[in-house]
Design goal:
The chain is mainly beta and about 190 residues long. Helix content is about 5%, strand content about 30%. The chain has 2 helices and 10 strands; from the N terminus they run H-H-E-E-E-E-E-E-E-E-E-E. It has helices spanning about 1-10, 20-25; strands spanning about 40-45, 45-50, 55, 70, 75-85, 90-100, 110, 115, 115-125, 130-140. The strands form 3 sheets. Strands 3-10-9-5-6 form a 5-stranded mixed sheet, with no helix packed on it. Strands 1-2-4 form a 3-stranded antiparallel sheet, with no helix packed on it. The protein has a two-stranded antiparallel ribbon with strand order 7-8. The longest helix has 7 residues, at about 1-10.
Length: about 190
């Protein structure tokens, strides 16, 4: 079922292969499937754009929102949406804004509540020369602030790449610190 939804929202179906293995979790954790893919990095006419695999909307000022990171100033978002992995419900939608705009950041809020779990994203990006590229993938929201529920640690936690691991040129570096404590994971 998730495979078909993945294809319906125009995400790359190759990323949905082995769906049962990839996303199923015997503990039924909301974090099942988190950080099991490499971060997405695309090239748009010589400019690299990076999408982290996880963010922590906990209000501490570190990795609090999901957005695309680049060193380029000439890229606009034609369309950008985030949907629930489980239900397909749309949560976030933006059109025709600069990539580096604060409007291009999702704060993890869904119906006045900080969301936890795995989400799908897709964005169509355009540079000033008219070249376009679509960036798609999965992002996990792990709110770990004061009062957050304790969540089960997931086996792919070490694969998580945060915005703070942006290398400054549209890519990422695993050696850079995430600056996250993630005390909410047992």
């Amino acid at each position: 079922m998730r495979y078909f939804f993945c294809c319906l929202v125009a995400l790359s179906c190759f990323s949905c292969q082995n769906d049962d293995e990839f996303f199923d979790d015997p503990n039924n954790s909301p974090l099942a499937g988190c950080c099991r893919q490499e971060p997405t990095v695309i090239d748009l006419n010589g400019s690299r754009i990076f999408a982290p695999t996880v963010f922590t909307p906990d209000g501490d000022g570190i990795n609090d929102s999901f957005s695309f990171l680049t060193d380029a100033e000439n890229i606009r978002i034609q369309s950008f949406f985030i949907t629930s992995f489980e239900t397909g419900a749309p949560f976030f939608n933006r059109t025709d804004i600069p990539l580096n705009s604060t409007l291009a950041r999702w704060d993890g809020i869904v119906a006045d509540t900080i969301a936890t779990g795995l989400f799908l994203y897709s964005a169509s990006l355009r540079d000033t020369q008219g070249e376009t590229e679509v960036i798609t993938g999965f992002v996990c929201s792990i709110p770990c602030g004061p009062g957050s529920p304790i969540l089960a640690k997931f086996d792919s936690l070490n694969n998580c790449i945060f915005a703070t691991q942006h290398d400054g040129s549209g890519g990422f570096n695993r050696e850079l610190p995430s600056l996250e404590e993630l005390e909410c994971l047992e």
